[in-house]
Design goal:
398 residues; mainly alpha; 16 helices; 77% helix; Zinc transporter ZIP13 homolog
């Protein structure tokens, strides 16, 4: 019995240790449960990050908080790369080194390759996004105008049916929805009398005067003269075009890809540790959780910066956790060929390190360097150092 077991045996009955030893016979079950537990840490930032659904990276009440969290994310990523991932990769290469082989060459090349892959992917998506944005700008005014005109026509149709009026347009057909739009929206001719007055004048002019049904419907608060019609049409047009405007930045997807690969390696570690023994598996799972919680906070901030909502970011984090489950099951299923698996997957850790370096130094840090306020810059630097320090503490003690 080990020294740790001897100490704990003073406080726990023998039958508990007997039960624990029986758990060693089911490594696949506890590997799966531990991987799911590690994956659930991805939703923890949803509970602790004080940023509302509408927070913007460029402005708004949550912008300052988001930048501080992004600084922490940069520090956490750098600490994870240089204090955890790369040392682990070098240690693995050193243990499996062949005589005359350069121990750090393979690891360094995979790290550089990881950075290169992420650069290429981001450039490809960035070029596509720029082309789509240019195309959208050319079509936006025409598309929105057409949508609003169509919505005005629908609303006018409802009004005509309610009032028993015949004709295709406003004021017995003398003013069409397009004329109403051109006068009151496209030309922005709403100064002085306001939008309602503008639409009233447009309708009155189309009717040959301000009398009759048109004049009667142009009173204050009247829906008949287009003020409410235009407002409702604009709201519906805005909803119709919202999905085109809410695009996600490619940096968020790159971060998710890197996290999926990282979670796969965690799954391999969890599965392998439970094959050794239940207590070893629990300790390994705890160590990974301690490392992952600050990492997940930084990842969450990066996803928010990339245009994800809080719930979208949480769901994306949970989706990447499935890679951890796959890794754990891989380790358990191929337990007889454990050394072969480690040899074939040794490239994953330095490759992931290269991806994290790209995200931290190329994707996130340049935005933070644009900060001109000295006080905010000092806060960002302190947050970055806190991220590095926390990862150093986690690596040292766990």
């Amino acid at each position: 019995m080990s020294a740790i077991s001897s100490v704990f045996s003073l406080y726990f009955p023998e039958y508990i240790w007997t039960f624990v030893e029986e758990l060693d016979e089911h490594p696949w079950l506890f590997s799966a449960l531990a991987s799911i537990l590690v994956g659930l840490s991805g939703i923890l930032p949803l509970l602790i990050i004080p940023i509302d659904e509408t927070a913007s990276f460029k402005d708004g009440a949550g912008a300052a908080t988001l930048r501080v969290l992004l600084s922490f994310a940069v520090g956490g990523l750098l600490g994870d790369v240089f204090l955890h991932l790369l040392p682990e990769a070098w240690e693995n290469d050193l243990a499996n080194r062949k005589e005359g082989e350069h121990v750090s060459l393979k690891c360094g090349l995979w790290c550089l390759f990881g950075m290169l892959v992420f650069i290429i992917v981001e450039k490809l998506f960035a070029a596509t996004d720029e082309e789509e944005e240019e195309s959208e700008k050319k079509k936006q005014n025409g598309d929105i105008k057409q949508i609003e005109i169509e919505e005005i026509e629908k609303l006018l149709e409802v009004e005509r049916k309610q009032r028993g009026v015949k004709g295709p347009g406003l004021c017995n057909g003398t003013v069409t929805a397009e004329q109403l739009y051109d006068t009151c929206v496209f030309n922005n001719n709403t100064k002085g009398s306001g939008e309602g007055g503008c639409c009233s004048m447009a309708a009155g002019a189309g009717a040959g005067g301000a009398g009759g049904r048109c004049g009667a419907g142009a009173g204050a608060g009247g829906r008949w003269m287009g003020r409410c019609l235009l407002r409702e049409a604009r709201d519906k047009a805005a909803k119709a075009t919202k999905t085109k405007q809410d695009k996600k930045d490619v940096a968020g997807y790159l971060n998710l890809m890197a996290n999926s690969i990282d979670n796969f390696t965690h799954g391999l570690a969890v599965g392998g540790s439970f094959l050794v023994g239940f207590r070893v598996g629990v300790l390994t799972t705890f160590a990974i959780l301690v490392h992952e919680i600050p990492h997940e906070v930084g990842d969450f901030a990066i996803l928010l910066k990339s245009g994800f909502s809080r719930w979208e970011a949480a769901k994306a984090q949970l989706a990447t956790a499935s890679a951890g489950l796959i890794g754990a099951m891989t380790a358990v299923i191929f337990s007889g060929a454990r050394n072969a698996i480690e040899a074939k997957t040794s490239w994953i850790v330095p490759f992931t390190a290269g991806g994290f370096l790209h995200i931290a130094l190329v994707t996130v840090l340049p935005d933070l360097l644009r900060e001109q306020d000295k006080k905010q810059s000092a806060t960002h630097l302190a947050s970055l150092l806190a991220g590095i320090a926390l990862m150093a503490i986690m690596t040292h003690y766990f």
